[in-house]
Amino acid sequence: MGTPRDDREEKTPAPSTTLSPSAEFPPLSAGDLAALGRLGRQWRLNDRVRALPVDPGVSEVRRPTDTTGAGTGPPGPFQPEHPGYLAATAGAERGDTPPGRAAGRLRRLLLGPPLASAAVLRERMPKLVALPVLSSDLLSSVAYGPEAMLTVLLLAGSGALGLSLPIAAALVVLMVTVGVSYRQTVYAYPHGAGSYLVASDSIGPRAGLAAAAGLILDYILTVSVSVAAGVAAVTSALPTLTPLAVPLALAVIGLLLAGNLRGVRVAGNVFAAPTYLFLAAVVGLVAVGLGQAAARGFTPVAPAPTPAVQGLSLLLVLRAFASGATSMTGIEAVSNAVPVFRPTEWRNARTVLTWMVGILVVLFVGLTLLIHLNGLVPRRDETLLSQLAHRTFPHGPWYPLIQVATALVLLFAANTAFNDLPRLLYFMARDSYVPRRFLHMGDRLAFSNGLVTLAACAALIVVAFGGHTQSLIPLYAVGVFLAFTLSQAGMVNHWRRHRGAGWRRRACLNGVGALLSAVVLLTAAVTKFAEGAWLVVLAVPLLVWLFLRVRRHYDRVRDALSPQAAVLAHPPRAGVAADPAAVLPQQVRHLFVVPVVRLNQAALRTLAYVGSLGQPTLAVHVSPEEQEARRFHDQWDAWGNHIPLETILSPHRVTVAPLARYVRALRRGRPDVTVTVVVPEVVVEHPWQRVLHHRTERRLRRAVRRVPGIVVTNMPTHLPR
Amino acid sequence: MGTPRDDREEKTPAPSTTLSPSAEFPPLSAGDLAALGRLGRQWRLNDRVRALPVDPGVSEVRRPTDTTGAGTGPPGPFQPEHPGYLAATAGAERGDTPPGRAAGRLRRLLLGPPLASAAVLRERMPKLVALPVLSSDLLSSVAYGPEAMLTVLLLAGSGALGLSLPIAAALVVLMVTVGVSYRQTVYAYPHGAGSYLVASDSIGPRAGLAAAAGLILDYILTVSVSVAAGVAAVTSALPTLTPLAVPLALAVIGLLLAGNLRGVRVAGNVFAAPTYLFLAAVVGLVAVGLGQAAARGFTPVAPAPTPAVQGLSLLLVLRAFASGATSMTGIEAVSNAVPVFRPTEWRNARTVLTWMVGILVVLFVGLTLLIHLNGLVPRRDETLLSQLAHRTFPHGPWYPLIQVATALVLLFAANTAFNDLPRLLYFMARDSYVPRRFLHMGDRLAFSNGLVTLAACAALIVVAFGGHTQSLIPLYAVGVFLAFTLSQAGMVNHWRRHRGAGWRRRACLNGVGALLSAVVLLTAAVTKFAEGAWLVVLAVPLLVWLFLRVRRHYDRVRDALSPQAAVLAHPPRAGVAADPAAVLPQQVRHLFVVPVVRLNQAALRTLAYVGSLGQPTLAVHVSPEEQEARRFHDQWDAWGNHIPLETILSPHRVTVAPLARYVRALRRGRPDVTVTVVVPEVVVEHPWQRVLHHRTERRLRRAVRRVPGIVVTNMPTHLPR
C-alpha cells in the first residue's frame, strides 16, 4: 500500500488514438482496488438489505399488459443477458409520456435510429480515396489564401501587388518544409497523432495544451472561414444573395451540425467527386489561363490603379506572407489519420501527403501567377477566384462550374473541422482537461457535445464578423501555426529521445519545419496583432489556464473520492463515533426531518414513508404567527402526535431560510448524524401548474447544499387522474 | 361523517377585508380533523422513531463557537418560546455563505430591516388627510381625461372641438350618478369592499371574477398611463427630455416598485402636500384663466384650423365621450378603504367621496371650458394642461409649479395601483383564483409577488406603446367601466336581497349608476374596438377562464389530498397489501435503488447511507459495453458484493433513459413498493464547475416524475476544503 497518489503516473502511457465509449468509465487503480477490499471486509449490513421484494431481472414484468400468456408479444425494454446483466433495447430509451415519445420519434426521424457501439467505423481507404477525403481542407485553402495575401499588399497601392510572386516563392519553401516535416510525424506516429498528442507526448502537457488551444481556435475558425468563403463563392456568382450572406452561412453551419449529429460518415467517394472536380476545375483554370497569357506573350496586365493607404514596409510584406500562409491550413490532416490507410499505413500516408503538398504548390503558384498576369485586384464584392474564372471563361458553363466546385469543397473543408474537433476534445477529456461530457458518444456514435459546441462558436464568430471572410483571416494564422510549431518542435524532441537510425537528419528536418512555422507564427502574431490576432494571442494562454483548472478540479475530485483516501482518512475503529463522511453502514446515524405545512395526505404519506424506516424522525412546522401555530398543534394532537413536532415561529413570514438554518443547527449539534429532509410535494400534471405551488424542496436544497451530511429530497404525491 | 366535499361551502361567508399572514395556512375542516383522528389511531411506529439523537430545541448548539461559557455572546438564531416552539430571529434568515450574507445585507440596505406581522398598519385617517390620499388617482385623471376627449374630436377637424362642452356636461351627469352610487356602496359595505368582493358577494363568483379582471387591467393601465402622463408633464416643460420618455417611465416604475417593496406606507401628510398643491394649482389656473377670458368678454379664441381626417359622426361623439370618461378612474378608491376612516367610518367616507366628486366636477368642467375658450388643440409634443398653463401664465414661476404638481400627483396615482392591486390579488388568492403565492407577505409586509407582477406588466405596456399616453387610453376605459358596472349591478342585487328601509330608492340609484356605466362600457368597447379595446374585450374573459382553471386545480388538489379522501380511498385493513398512496407506516414497503457509475467514495457513502437503513437495496450499473461491465463487476466483487447488483448494458450509450425505464419496470412489478432512488453526487464549490459533472439525479427525477411511488434524491458528497 503506497500513498493515494502513487498510481497517477500510470494514466498517460503512449497516447492511444482509439475511441471507446468506455472512456467515460476509467478503471480503478490497483491501490484503489485494494482499498475497496479493505473497506469491504469491514462492511456490516443486516440481512433484510439483500431480501429484494422484486426480481431485479424484471422478467415477470417485462410485458405487463399481455395477459394472454404465451410470451408472443413484442420484446420488452430489457432482455436478460447473463444473470445480473440486462441488455437495454431501444424500447428502454423511449419516453414515457406522449410528448416524450413524440420528441423521440422526431429525433429518430431527423437523426436516424441509434447505433450500437460496435458500429464505430473503422473504414480503410485506398490512397486515391484518402487523397480527396483528407485534402479538402488543405486544397480549399487556395480559394482564400492568395486573396488574403494580395489584400494586404494592396494596402500599399496596386504597385505593390507585383511583390506577390517573391512572397509566393517563399511560401512554397514553407509548404515543402512543413510537408517534409509532417512526413516524419507520420513515420514516427504510425497510429496517427495530432499536434496535441505529439506535443504532449514529446514536450510536455503544457505544450500539448497550447497546441490544442491553437487547434481548437483553428477548427472553429476553419468552420467560420470556410463557410463564409463558400457563401462568398455563391454570392460572387449570384450578387443578389449578398445581403443574405450571414443567414446563409448560419444555415450552412446548421446543416453541417445536423449532418454530423446524425453521425453521417460521409463515404470516401462522396468526398472524392467534388474535391476532384475542384482540382480539375482549378487546374483547368490555371492551364487555360496560362495558355491565354502565353498568347499575350506573358505580358502582365497592369492592375487597376489603387491608391496606397499605407507605405510599403517590411512589416507589410511580412503581413502579406503570414496571410498567404493560411493556404496551408489543413496540411496536418494526414498525420491525424494514418490508421485509415491500408497497410503499410505510414508508407501510404506519406505518399498521399507528398501528393497533397505537390498539388497545393501547383495550385497556389498557378493561381498567384495568373492573378498577377491578369492584373486582378481584390474586391469586396467578388472573390479573386471568381474574377479569375470570369476573366478566363467569359462564356460557357465553366464559370458556374468553378464556383459550385469551390463552394462544395469549402463546405467539405468545414466538415473536416466537425470531424476533428470533437475527436480532439475527446482526447483532451480523456486526460481531464475539458469537461468529461466530451467523452460521451451520442446514440448516433457522434460526439454530440463537441459538435454542438463547435457549431455554436462558429456561428457566433460568423455573426460577430458579419460573415466577411477577410476579416477573419488575421485570427486564423496564429492558431494554425502555433499548432504546427509545437507539433514539429515536439518531433525534434521525439527523435532526440529515441535516437534511431539517422535521428540527427530527421531532427534537423523537423527543426527547420518548426523554425519556419515559428517565424510565420511570430510574424502573424506581431503584424496582425492590432487587426484581431491579439484575440488569439490572448485566448491561447487563457484556454491553457482553463484546461489546467479543469484538470485540477478533476484531480481533486478523484483524489478526494478515491477509496484509498477513505481508508486513510477514516481508519474504521470499533466504538468510535461515526463521521460525516462515513463509508461503512454501521457508522451512519440517521435523523429524518419532515417539514409539514398542513396535515394533508401529502404530509401524511411523507410521515408514513419516513416513519416506516424506523429511524429517529422530527417534524417541523414553520409558522408566521403564534395563533396559526397553535391551530396546527391542535391538528397534530387530533392526529395523535405520533412524531415529535417542533414549531418555528418566523415573525417575518420567511419559510425556507429559517428551515435551512434550523436543519444546519441540528446537524451542527451532532456532526456524526446524517440529516435527511423529506419535503412533501404535489406533482402537478401540466408545467403551467407549477407556478401554483411552492417549490420548497428546490429552494431548501439550494440553501443547504454547502453543508455536508444533509440530504434533501421530496416525497412526490401524484393527483389521481 | 359526510362526503369529503360536505364542507366546501363554508369557505366564503361574508367577505373579510383583513389581511393576515396566516391566510397562507387555511384551517382544516371538521371532517378532515375527524378523518385525521381515525387515521392516527391506526398509525403504528417503532419506538426508535421518537428517540431523537438531537435536542430539537437546539439549545446546546445555539452558540457553537462560544467556548468561553457564561452565555454572554449574541443571541443565537432561534430563541425558545414554549416547549416545542422556537422563535426565529433575524439571524435565522441570514445566508450561510459570504455571497449569501452580502446579498442579505444589500437587501436590508435597499428595503430596510424585516418587519414583524404585528406591524401591519391599521392607521386611521382624518377626513382632510384621507381626501388627498384617496383622491390622487381620481383627481390626477383630469390631467389626461379632457385631452383624450379632445383628441378624438379633433379627428373631425378643429370645427368639432366645440362639441366638447355638451359632452363634458354629459360626463358631469355620469360623474355625479356614479358618485352617488358609490356613496351607497360605502353605506352597504362599511368594512370596505372593492368591486371584486361586492360583485362576488351580491351577484356570484363569475361576476366578481369579471370585475376583478377588469380591475386588474385597470390597475396595470393606471400605472402605465399615470407614469406616461407624469413623464409627459415633465417632457412638456423640458422638451429635450422627450426622446428619453420611455427610459424615464421605466425608471419611475422601478422606483415605485422599490418603494413599495420596501413597504413604505407613505404617510398621509406626504400625500397631502402634492395633492393639495395640484388642487391649488389647477384651481388657480382655472380661476386666472376664467378671469382672463372674462376680460375678453368670454369670446372663444378660434382654434388653429386642423383638417378633418374623418367625418363628424355619432360614433365619433360617443368615442369622445368614452375617452373623456377616463377622467373618472379612481372614483372607487373610497369604497375600498372605508376602514381607514375614523368612526363613524361610513359617514366620514361618504363625506369625503362627496367632496371628491365635487372637486372632480369643478376641475373637469373648468379645464374643458378654458381649453375651449383659449382655442387650444391637442398636440403630440405638449400636453393640453401644459399648453393651458403656458397660455395663462406666460411668465413667472407658475408654469413650472403646475407641471411639477401634475407630475407628482400622477406619480401618486400610479402608487395607488401599487397599493390596491396586490390587495386584490390577495383576496383572489384567498379564494384560490390566482396562485397562492400572492397570499405571501414579504419580510417588509408588502405583497412582493403582486408588486413585481404589476411593475413587470406595466413596464411591458409602456415599452410596447412607446410610452405614449393617448394610445393607451382606449385600453383603459373598458376595464374601469366593466368593474363600475358590475359593482353597481351587484349593489342593486344587494338591496334586493336585504330589503332594508328605502331599498327600492337605493336599488334605483345604483341601477342608474350601473346603467350609465354600462353605456360607457359598451360605447368604449364598440367605438374603440379597433384601436385596442379589443385587447381588453378579449383579455377579460380569458382572465376569468384562467382564474377558474386555477381554482379548479386548487380544488382538485385540496380534495385529493384531504385526509377524508385518504380514509375513503384506503380503508386500512390488516393483512391487506399496501398501497402506493399508503398513509400508514405499516403499509409502506421499501426498495432502495442506488445507481453506481464507479466505486468511489461518493458511491460507497451512498451505499453505506442506504444500507444502514436496513431496507432492501439494489445497486444498478448502466454500462455502454460488456467489457466495461465485466470490469465493474470485478471491482464490485473486490469490494465484497455486499449489495445485489444489476447491470444494464446500454448499447446506445444512453444512461438516464434506461435507468428511468428500469426503475419504472421494478415499480410496475410491485405497485405496493415505494422505490427510492439515491444518486451519489459530488457537490462542487463553484457554479462553473457544475458543467464538469453529470447531473444525473436531476435528469432522472424529471424522467420518472409522472410515475407515482418513486422518490429520487441525491446523496451529496462534499469535497474537503
Automatic annotation (TrEMBL), chains A, B:
<feature type="transmembrane region" description="Helical">
    <location>
        <begin position="532"/>
        <end position="548"/>
    </location>
</feature>
<feature type="region of interest" description="Disordered">
    <location>
        <begin position="1"/>
        <end position="30"/>
    </location>
</feature>
<feature type="transmembrane region" description="Helical">
    <location>
        <begin position="352"/>
        <end position="377"/>
    </location>
</feature>
<feature type="transmembrane region" description="Helical">
    <location>
        <begin position="270"/>
        <end position="291"/>
    </location>
</feature>
<feature type="region of interest" description="Disordered">
    <location>
        <begin position="56"/>
        <end position="98"/>
    </location>
</feature>
<feature type="transmembrane region" description="Helical">
    <location>
        <begin position="445"/>
        <end position="467"/>
    </location>
</feature>
<feature type="transmembrane region" description="Helical">
    <location>
        <begin position="473"/>
        <end position="495"/>
    </location>
</feature>
<feature type="transmembrane region" description="Helical">
    <location>
        <begin position="152"/>
        <end position="176"/>
    </location>
</feature>
<dbReference type="InterPro" id="IPR002293">
    <property type="entry name" value="AA/rel_permease1"/>
</dbReference>
<feature type="transmembrane region" description="Helical">
    <location>
        <begin position="507"/>
        <end position="526"/>
    </location>
</feature>
<keyword id="KW-0812">Transmembrane</keyword>
<feature type="compositionally biased region" description="Basic and acidic residues">
    <location>
        <begin position="1"/>
        <end position="12"/>
    </location>
</feature>
<feature type="transmembrane region" description="Helical">
    <location>
        <begin position="311"/>
        <end position="331"/>
    </location>
</feature>
<keyword id="KW-1133">Transmembrane helix</keyword>
<protein>
    <submittedName>
        <fullName>Amino acid permease</fullName>
    </submittedName>
</protein>
<dbReference type="GO" id="GO:0016020">
    <property type="term" value="C:membrane"/>
</dbReference>
<dbReference type="Pfam" id="PF13520">
    <property type="entry name" value="AA_permease_2"/>
</dbReference>
<dbReference type="InterPro" id="IPR053153">
    <property type="entry name" value="APC_K+_Transporter"/>
</dbReference>
<feature type="transmembrane region" description="Helical">
    <location>
        <begin position="240"/>
        <end position="258"/>
    </location>
</feature>
<feature type="transmembrane region" description="Helical">
    <location>
        <begin position="209"/>
        <end position="234"/>
    </location>
</feature>
<keyword id="KW-0472">Membrane</keyword>
<feature type="transmembrane region" description="Helical">
    <location>
        <begin position="397"/>
        <end position="418"/>
    </location>
</feature>
<dbReference type="GO" id="GO:0022857">
    <property type="term" value="F:transmembrane transporter activity"/>
</dbReference>
